[in-house]
């Protein structure tokens, strides 16, 4: 399986990082080794001094597909959760400045903790999914899927033009505003429609 991550999908977040507004979805990949096993603490990586959290809705692909039409896209994902796209922001800035790929800043081990999945068909409000993350008990990020620049279906259609989607692949759909640093000792709790789906600590 692979993890596909969309960058720059919420206007307020594009602005907070001073990035240009995208005209089509921008994506990058994380390997399966980026998943954080259930019950494990997130080990703060020794190669970064500035690890940011990005709280994102995560889709699970349920069917093999390539070149998927936007109208057919809903048949290709059936479950959703919330995850963190951990980013070594200091390394990412260096990579960007040199025009290098970002993998060392994004694809490192345990950089993609994900919560418990929920069936899309069981969501209370599938057209505007509320999600968020509490850091040490206080809301750090809260988002709504209606604020996405590119919809789930647009993302699935776009990505599958270039990369075949396989059952079990995960799609991180971008972070809303409010990204910031984590520190050793922090506790993170992820919420989907008000329900806790994952908690873990940074060690
Ligand atoms: Zn992200």
Largest sheet entry: 6 strands, mixed
CATH class: Alpha Beta
Strand fraction band? 25-35%
Low-confidence stretches: none
- Report Rg: 16 Å
* Molecular shape: globular
What strand line-up does the widest sheet have?
A: 2-1-10-4-5-7
| Total of domains | 1
Q: Fraction of residues in helices?
A: 10-25%
E-strand count: 13
Which secondary-structure class do the elements indicate? alpha+beta
Task: Sum up the structure in keywords.
six-stranded mixed β-sheet, alpha+beta, globular, single chain, 203 residues, four-stranded antiparallel β-sheet, Fumarylacetoacetate hydrolase, domain 2
Topology, please?
Blueprint: E1 3-7, H1 11-16, E2 26-30, E3 51-53, E4 55-61, E5 77-84, E6 87-88, H2 89-98, H3 103-106, E7 118-119, E8 130-135, E9 138-144, H4 152-162, E10 170-172, E11 180-181, E12 187-192, E13 195-201
Parallel strand pairs: 1-10
Antiparallel strand pairs: 1-2, 3-6, 3-11, 4-5, 4-10, 5-7, 8-9, 8-12, 12-13
The structure holds zinc ion.
Give your account of this protein's structure.
- By secondary structure, the chain is an alpha+beta fold.
- It has one domain: Fumarylacetoacetate hydrolase, domain 2.
- It contains 4 helices and 13 strands.
- The strands form 3 sheets. A 6-stranded mixed sheet has the order 2-1-10-4-5-7, covered by helices on one side. The chain has a 4-stranded antiparallel sheet with strand order 9-8-12-13, with no helix packed on it.
- β8 and β9 form a beta hairpin.
- The chain starts with a strand and ends with a strand.
- Bound molecules: zinc ion.
């Amino acid at each position: 399986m692979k993890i596909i991550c969309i960058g720059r999908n919420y206007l307020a977040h594009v602005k907070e990082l001073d990035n240009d507004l995208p005209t089509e979805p921008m994506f990058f990949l994380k390997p399966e080794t980026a998943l954080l096993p259930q019950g494990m603490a997130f080990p703060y990586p020794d190669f970064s001094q500035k690890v940011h959290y990005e709280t994102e809705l995560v889709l699970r692909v349920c069917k093999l597909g390539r070149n998927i039409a936007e109208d057919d896209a809903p048949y290709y994902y059936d479950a959703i959760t919330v995850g963190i796209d951990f980013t070594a922001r200091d390394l990412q800035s260096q990579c960007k400045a040199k025009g290098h790929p970002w993998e060392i800043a994004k694809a490192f081990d345990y950089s993609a903790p994900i919560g418990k999945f929920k069936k899309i068909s069981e969501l209370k409000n599938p057209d505007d999914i509320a999600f968020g993350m509490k850091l040490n008990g206080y809301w750090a990020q809260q988002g709504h899927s209606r604020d996405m620049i590119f919809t789930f279906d647009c993302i699935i259609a776009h990505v599958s033009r270039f990369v075949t989607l396989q059952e079990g692949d995960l799609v991180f759909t971008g972070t809303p505003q409010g990204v910031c640093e984590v520190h050793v000792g922090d506790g993170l709790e992820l919420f989907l429609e008000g329900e806790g789906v994952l908690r873990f600590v940074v060690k």
